[in-house]
């Protein structure tokens, strides 16, 4: 009996030691598995970044207006609604293009074009008020918008991508600096050939006879169409290599079409004041990329 006890104790020690080794191995394996598991909070943050690109916030124009003459109220209201529509469309584009482009994608593809639209729309509001009173000044400072990455959606109701504001004389004016920056300097290297160029239908050749009283305004807007193409070509060069397959369409050709729709509509309205307003010119607004 006394001889069997040590043997039994020896077997028990071996058994307990083996069990402990198994437990320890399991702990090591479990620890390794946990170490390789992505942090849930990190994953959630990544998903939130992709699904919540932020919203675009713009200064309120309505609250900055002076008293609006009754005869101008309808036109002012239409353009205020259009400002909301433009913000909604920009927010939609922000969501549709999430993850595209480089550091300046949002500025070049969304905020910049939105500012251009707002300048034109705000100018129409000021002109409408000025017909029956004093035209307000300084409203163009309200055109610039910002990306709010932690805010809520401040955009209006989306009603489509067409500028439907009624223009009764407003004219976009291209500044000399914008025109100069949009064209190659004399003797400079034309880098646009490396990325292609933007080609748009010619509007001037499709116009009917232009009344003499509308000629100056029509000429200004024809010049503006050329400026818009030059600016789009410059943006094409400046953003080369950015974005995915749809970058040029979303960031350059789409916004350019929106601008051209508005400018061509002003040309038609100017002609229509002294004659028959031409129709179908909006079919000339879409441009293409030519390699």
Structure report:
This protein is mainly alpha-helical. Helices cover 53% and strands 4% of the residues. It has 8 helices and 4 strands. It is flat. The N and C termini lie far apart (99 Å). Residues 19-25, 27-51 and 151-193 have low confidence and may be disordered.
Which key terms come to mind for this protein?
291 residues; mainly alpha; two-stranded antiparallel sheet; flat
Summarize this structure briefly.
By secondary structure, the protein is mostly helical.
- Oligomeric form: single chain
Low-confidence stretches: 19-25, 27-51, 151-193
Structural classification: mainly alpha
The main β sheet shows up as: 2 strands, antiparallel
Straight-line N-to-C gap: 99 Å
Strand fraction = under 5%
Number of strands: 4
Judging from the principal axes of the Cα atoms, what is the shape? flat
**Overall pLDDT:** 74
C-alpha Rg, in Å?
A: 31 Å
**N-to-C series of helices and strands:** HHEHHEHHEHHE
Q: Give me the side-by-side strand order of the main sheet.
A: 1-2
Helix content: 40-55%
Count, helices: 8
Question: How do the helices and strands line up, and which of them pair or pack?
Answer:
Blueprint: H1 4-35, H2 40-51, E1 55-57, H3 73-96, H4 105-130, E2 146-148, H5 176-182, H6 192-195, E3 197-199, H7 215-238, H8 247-272, E4 288-290
Antiparallel strand pairs: 1-2, 3-4
Helix pairs in contact: 3-4, 4-8, 5-7, 7-8
